[in-house]
TrEMBL record:
It comes from the Bacteria. This is HD/PDEase domain-containing protein. GO terms for molecular function: guanosine-3',5'-bis(diphosphate) 3'-diphosphatase activity. Transmembrane segments: none annotated. SMART domains: HDc (SM00471). Residues 32-140 form the HD/PDEase domain. It holds the Pfam family DUF3553. Gene3D superfamilies: Hypothetical protein af1432.
Amino acid sequence: MSNNNDDAISLLLTALRFAADKHRDQRRKDRNASPYINHPIQIADILWKIGGVRDVVTLAGALLHDTLEDTNATPEEIQTLCGVEVLSVVNEVTDDKTLSKVERKRRQIEHASSLSIRAKQLKLADKICNVYDIAHAPPLNWSRKRRHDYLQWSEQVVAGLRGVNPALEYYYDEILAQARHRLAYEQENVRTFRVGDRVRHPKKPEWGLGQILACTDKHLRVFFVGAGQKLLRQEKTLLARLDPQQAQNRLLDDLKISSEQKVIGYQPLPVLIERFLHQYGEGFYSESYLKTYRQARISAHTAMQNYLNQTTFSQLLREKNYQEICERSVMIIETAQVLSDIEKISLEEGLQHPAQQRLFAEKLYQFLFAEQAIEARFNAFVAGLMQMNAAHWRIVTSFLFITYPETDILLNPDIIPLAAELCAFNLNYHTQPNWQTYRQLLTFADYLAQSLVDMRPRDLIDVYAFMEANVTLLQPLQK
């Protein structure tokens, strides 16, 4: 390597070390408060890569261009370390801070055309960096109008710099156009975003589909299926608004976001799946899963088919053998292991008297096998259980769940509301059994079944178990 090259590298390293020391406690005013030294390094990089500048004095000047203006550096220090030529360039691009901001900005416009070639190129690269940052990483307290005004002012300054380096000028024009486009896009979004809009974040595809929950001039609160709630700055966010017909989503259609204290809180579905598979390596086909969640319910389903199928049930009704129906019903429910101790006692006490046994037997048969619409059958069964003081969610739904696991599901008050909370699904839950809540649960179960299709759930026993397992696994973590 020649001596000239050695001298050039030595000068640049000296300038860089001096600038890094002087700017060591300074930060840019962007949201990330990035180290200030990044800015002069970026200017030197643009001069080298975009402008093709190989003049070491210009590059050293770029590294030092803010030291006199924004640090305690002195002209004597710069001259001693880097020479008279470098100091001259730095002096040319240094504003007089004894003047007002308005006057300093006016003088930059006025003096731009009279700067040296070195200073003009440095100034161009500086404006390129600043214009880019104004669009993509502006100071936190800058309004959109202030950012727009800066772009206008920078263009006036650059007008006096033109003719010095076509590559830098072309790059400035590109960056300026992009910045104006971004600000215009942001302004359009502020005017047109509405609560309920479906959106995607172009830079966060893993967040998935989102829905606007609230919007102000400065912020958007958005719920993303893959990430939960996010508070985004209007000026920093370029969300893509979607056509409602192309952005349908069962979860967002029934989204529930509450300001109340959450017991568990939203968890994206991929996280729930990962947690489930971590616990049960083969998913719904793991031996430990089968033993924990499926075997008892399948045994109850088999018992229902053997001992209270429609033919057997109707025969027992014709024989008025209501007690036998009740005993078989209790046996099947106990096999499923879905009722709490209090609910077992409530059901057994409600079936002590012959009149109540008949009421239960007839209502249960109609509930399971009548051709009436399910809503009417559901409401009639709940009314019958209320007469027996046994109208609990698990009692109401367990018989459907055991008899028709392909289409019906258990509503366990200790599991389902928390599972809905995990998925931010609006269950419309009430402690008193009612058709509206159960209908929402069926919608929720269908949404989960479709979302878990790659795990091959056999029926809603598996879907319910997925909810139960996740709630059970999470609850200890909340304590």
